[in-house]
Amino acid sequence: MQYIASEQNFNDRFQARLLPSLLLSIFVFTNLFLWTYLPQVAFLAIFHGIRLAWVNGAFLVLGEGAAITALLFEAFFVDETLVDVFDATLIDQGCRDLVATSRILDQGADDPVEELGKPSTSAVYSPFSLRQIIEFIIFLPLNLIPIAGTPLFLVMTGYRAGPLHHWRYFKLLGFTKEERNASISKRKLQYTWFGVSALFLQLIPVLSMLFLVTTAAGSALWVARLEETRRSKNDLENGPRYEDDPP
Question: Coil, strand, or helix at residue 128?
């Protein structure tokens, strides 16, 4: 979030896309709390007691609102915007060659955002499938468990969603399914924490759309660090290049 706020080029380019998204988010959360919050609190009170029901009911509605806004943002705004944010951040962090494998770049542009051209291959930030929707619905009843239910719901959902934030990175590297799974298995705890943090931010009413964008930037910043480590390791393994006439 700090990175996006400090980059004026990002703000100028994506502000027009975020405004309708914020209005959409306000509409979704207002209606959910207006029409579904009290019935869900009444239902949860059967399992949790009335005091916990008010809190867990709020988390339940926030989770539902996050899922709905993500789906609507996916349908109208999200993927193109998130791909652009992700790619522009990578360019800004010195990973231009990685982005160039998947889209046309204008190297004479004044900033990373302006440098972005049309994708030359399929550009997807994070695939949203029917399986994810089903899993989300399956995990929702965890909120019925007193006290531990809501944190468990966040962890389970974050565990599944975390690696998806690097879906585009794996595609840029040309990873096969086996290579992708191997890379994910090395960082299971990190991906779970990233996924939980991203989901928690998306539970914040109205700002959930904004945090989808900042999460994409954060994901790209993480990729930049991974690439720095990977490239340094490759340089060490390959050794210095041989030159007939060293300077």
Answer: coil
Q: How is residue 145 annotated by DSSP?
A: S
205 phi, psi to nearest 5 deg: -55, 145
Amino acid residing at 246: P
pLDDT, tens digit only, all 247 positions of the chain: 566 656 556 655 566 666 666 777 788 888 888 888 888 888 878 877 787 788 878 877 887 777 777 667 665 556 678 888 899 899 989 899 999 988 988 887 777 888 888 888 888 887 766 666 677 777 877 777 777 777 888 888 888 888 989 999 999 999 998 999 999 999 999 999 999 998 888 777 777 777 888 888 899 999 999 998 888 887 676 655 544 455 4
Do residues 30 and 65 lie in contact, with contact meaning Cβ atoms separated by under 8 Å?
no
Residue 119, helix vs strand vs coil: strand
Does the model's pTM come out above 0.90? no
Of 217, 211, 210, 215, the closest CA to residue 21 belongs to 210
